Amino acid sequence: MQTTARVQPARSSLLRDPKFRGLVFQILAVFTVVGIGWYLFQNTQSNLAQRGITSGFGFLNNTAGFGILQSLIDYTETDTYGRVFVIGLLNTLLVSGLGIFFATLIGFVIGIARLSPNWLLSRLATVYIEIFRNIPPLLQIFFWYFAVLRAMPAPRASYEFFDAIYLNIRGLYLPSPIPADGFNVFAIALLAACVAIVLVARWARKRREATGQLFPTPAVAIGLLVALPGLAALVAGNPVTWSVPELRGFNFVGGLVVIPELVALTLALTLYTAAFIAENVRSGIQAVSHGQTEAARSLGLRPRHILRLVIIPQALRVIIPPLTSQYLNLAKNSSLAAAIGYPDLVSLFAGTVLNQTGQAIETIAITMSVYLAISLSISLLMNWYNKRIALVER
Amino acid sequence: MTEKKLESAAGDKLMIRMESVNKWYGEFHVLKDINLDVRQGERIVLCGPSGSGKSTTIRCINRLEEHQAGRIIVDGVELTSDLKQIEAIRREVGMVFQHFNLFPHLTVLENCTLAPMWVRHMPRREAEAVAMHFLERVRIPEQALKYPGQLSGGQQQRVAIARALCMKPAIMLFDEPTSALDPEMVKEVLDTMIELAESGMTMLCVTHEMGFARTVAHRIIFMDRGEIVEQAAPDEFFSNPKSERTRTFLGQILH
Amino acid sequence: MDTHIFKPDLKRPLLSVGALGWLRTNLFSNWFNTLLTLFSLYLIWLVVPPIVKWAIIDADWVGTTRADCTSEGACWVFIKMRFAQFMYGFYPHELRWRVDLTVIAAIVGAAPLFVRAMPRKLIYGAFFLVAYPALAFWLLHGGFLGLVAVPTSQWGGLMLTLVIAVVGIAGAMPLGILLALGRRSDMPAIRVICVTFIEFWRGVPLITVLFMSSVMLPLFLPEHVSIDKLLRALLAVMLFEAAYIAEVVRGGLQAIPKGQYEAAAAMGLGYWRSMGLVILPQALKLVIPGIVNTFIALFKDTSLVIIIGLFDLLNSIHQATVDPAWLGFATEGYVFAALVFWIFCFGMSRYSMSIERRLDRGHKR
Ligand SMILES: Nc1ncnc2c1ncn2[C@@H]1O[C@H](COP(=O)(O)OP(=O)(O)OP(=O)(O)O)[C@@H](O)[C@H]1O
Ligand SMILES: [Mg+2]
Questions:
Q1: Does residue A116 belong to any structural domain of this protein?
Q2: Does the beta carbon of B56 sit less than 6 angstroms from any atom of ligand 1?
Q3: Where are the extended beta strands (E) located within C213-350?
Q4: Same domain flag for A332 and A379
Q5: Which whole-number Å values give the CA distances from C364 to B4, C357, C358, C359, C361, in the listed order?
């Protein structure tokens, strides 16, 4: 009796045993996923066979045969799809880089303005944030591209700024620097200034710790940055000459042309993302409790030292994680380029190349992998950073 | 709590003088005609019902709050909107908050050395020596390298006291230093404060710890509705309150 | 025993109260503040008058053709003439009442859910969630029970935008919740599957997902199966949003104290029942603001369906601006689109903030 009584529940308890059930459940789940994958794979195989498409990445070596609006590296129509991929990637990185730079700048300024004790300024910042973050980025791109830049006058009637910058329907014409005689000396001087600043900053910190004396490092740094290269330019002559765009006939020559697609995209992504960054900055600063400032004040610390030693280090911990996710969003939104034909990765590769070759799976897989790789590496970096800076709690 | 009285007399030098200080929050009249003289080495306890303006009074002394009328003179310097003078006064006045307000991103030691290094321009080594001296006085030198988040409430408050002391202030202000603490931690903080009192520090303390007030205070000030209703030596204050308002309050608080 | 006589409240000294005092403290408290005020005024002067002049004072409001737009300012006639198309796309004129009815049904049906004191909210909510989609499908698409079918190729404008956003989020919810539970499961295989799924969709831009749905999906399916273009887009949006919803819900699950899980287990509830009866109701309530924010993001992202040739609000307007009969009014078109999107997104974000505040207060109590 006793033994059977013990054996009986043991048998049925195998089914009730959560570990066993979990195992079965997991095996089932894996089978389902694999099964779906297999089913899709089979369908794809037969569909591809039907359409006579050979899969594989061999097409990357084929000649592209089409022109590209903007390329950071040399490109002709006889180059390969592989090179088109690189161009698309570089253009995506260019737009993302520009967008991140300007959005950070504007976002921090507006986020701080939002907290200004000046009522009017903080209201203006709020209005900016609420307008720009509530309008779809694609619509903003369309607005800047179709309603503003495409409506620009012909080159002859360009808008002109400071006699050196021109804006017309063909794009934004900026002066571009060309290295001249004094360039090398100038570059060396600049480098020397940077090294000197690092050394001065180190020395100043050591001295402060040893003697308590403060040293005006920022002022000295700016002085060095101006004086050394300036001196070099005086001694060795002009470091650069500027190639200023000039109207010849119907178009401008010289200078640097930024195509309207790039201008519209950068502008829209910058203004859109800046609104989010501003909110991150505001909430990051507000997350530092008022008590912290009061404690610092009551110790007699100067306002700028309170900012530097107490508020910024704490606020940055709060700001940086959402900031990186904004950067990621911006990089992903840069794919909206496809809608106005700026040759970024998506529009070039998942658009033009896909249409020309029919290699749908390969092109989209490659495009997605690039974004996945970027996202994953940034989130790994973020996890590492978060662990490093996490405030130590009990 | 020992009921033994601390017998250290106050000096003659005037450390704080408030002359008919008035303050408004918006249209709300929080401080009405506050007159208060504090001499060197004097220990004063402020008490009164919630919202009576105790915190506001002591926060005016180091200009965490601005007063709109009257004069406040601290250690011979009048508080005006001149930031230089405000900073000079804040260097001489230490403050301890109800919620500690330690800097969570800095270690205990760094919390204590921050102001001496950046305000008093002390070399790091010296600042650390001073910090360790005061951490020993509040009996937590072994926690120096931990972060505030790793300490108990009582330990944090003692660090906050040490942090203020590291600036070698002439006056210490306490704003309900024990009211955010669990009961078992209250004593360790009060003991620290009693020791500080024994060393002759000028202290202004908002607290409802009446035992502490009896032991330590030279004078107890009772505030209500933004006014000083009554001030007296502890014996007098507890045994023979002059105003009926004070009596009601004491009845509530001493059960 | 004395009775203390309290002093009367006095007025604050002048210069610090009233309008003047307010100006002094908020706009002109020191030279830097004054500078900022002047700078702000300059910015306003730079931006506001031209916009007001263009959009209102100099604008053309009446008329029916482009010839009626004679002044310097905005040509709102264009918007007025195309308004119906912006709202309904190519939905047949005489059937547009069906769209209106669908919207009215949504408002009337959902209204009780926003009444805080409503009894049996949960049961009603469940009923609404089941009945409304069926009703909406019948009204919008038809083809049975006496309504003429309107193929999705004729859907467009704001109506299509709303359809994509609402169906997208509603479809993404169940999958998102499952994924969130899976990600927190203690079964490694399940966790790996869910994490991979979530991180995949969150790592790629929506536009590539839409590309995928339009060119890869046909390859994935058996030959004879062809899916409606709108359905393909909806599928893509649902999978994509499910990953984001999953992360929001996971946040809510993490915020539930461990004690709740333990209490549910101690009551002898199994996994699904303790999740369904104890944990999820609390977690989902916490994440309503997060879900609304996801919805706002999705609402803005619906505009990307232009890439695969659907005529949502933005695409309808975009097409109208390149219509030869109305060339040159792109600004008016986009400004109008922006206004519509803005009203929706801003309204929802305010709503989400108000819930957040309410939840906060509930917590503190
Ligand atoms: N920043 C402020 N703005 C407006 N009113 C305030 C502000 N700070 C305090 N008050 C009001 O001023 C009054 C006095 O506040 P105070 O903090 O000095 O009181 P308290 O005596 O310290 O009370 P408690 O025992 O609660 O700390 C209260 O009625 C309070 O509501
Ligand atoms: Mg108080």
A1: yes
A2: yes
A3: none
A4: yes
A5: 42, 11, 10, 9, 5
Is the ipTM here above 0.85?
yes
Looking at the fold, whether A15 and A121 belong to one and the same domain comes out as no
Tally of domains in chain A: 2
Beta-sheet pairing, B202-206 with B43-47:
parallel
Q: Are residues A375 and A270 in the same domain?
A: yes
Are residues A303 and A379 part of one domain? yes
Q: H or E element: which one contains B228?
A: strand B227-232
Cβ contacts of B230 on chain C, cutoff 8 Å: 4
Cα gap B200→B45, rounded to integer Å:
15
What domains can you pick out in chain C, each with its CATH number? 76-91+150-364 (1.10.3720.10), 97-147 (no CATH)
Residues of B near C (CB-CB distance < 8 A)? Answer: 22, 24, 26-27, 29, 32-33, 68-69, 224-225, 227, 229-230, 242-247
- pLDDT tens for residues B20-52? 999 998 888 999 999 999 999 999 999 999 999
User: In this complex, which of C3, C9, C12 lies closest to B244 when CB atoms are compared?
Assistant: C3
Low-confidence ranges of chain A (pLDDT < 70): 1-15, 391-394
pLDDT value, residue A129 = 96
Q: Are C314 and C158 in contact (CB under 8 A)?
A: no
Nearest residue on chain B to C15, alpha-carbon basis: B68
Beta strand B171-175 pairing with B202-206: parallel
**Interchain proximity B68–C13, CB inside 8 Å:** yes
Extract the runs of DSSP E, i.e. beta strands, from C197-263: none
Both A104 and A36 in a single domain? Answer: no
Reading the block at residue B182, the tokens are 């669990």
Considering the domain architecture, whether residues A28 and A139 belong to the same structural domain is answered as no
Q: Which domain holds residue A379?
A: 85-148+260-389
Are A300 and B103 inside 8 Å of each other by CB? Answer: no
The structure's pTM equals: 0.89
Task: Report the phi/psi class of residue A259: left, alpha or beta, with left for phi > 0 and alpha for psi in -120 to 50.
Answer: beta
Tens of pLDDT, residue by residue over A48-70, are: 888 887 788 888 888 888 888 88
Asked if B99 contacts A291 with a C-beta cutoff of 8 angstroms, the reply is yes
The closest alpha carbon to B228, from B52, B29, B6, belongs to B52
Contact between residue C132 and residue C104 where contact means Cβ atoms under 8 Å apart: no
Task: Name the residue among A161, A342, A156, A173 with its Cα closest to residue A249.
Answer: A156
3-class SS at C143? coil
Ligand 1: centre distance to CA B55 (Å): 7
Q: Does residue A134 fall inside a structural domain? A: yes
Smallest Cα distance from B84 to chain A, Å: 9
Percent of chain C with pLDDT over 90: 46
CA–centroid distance, B26 to ligand 2, in Å, is 18
Which residues pair with residue B95 across a beta bridge?
Answer: B173
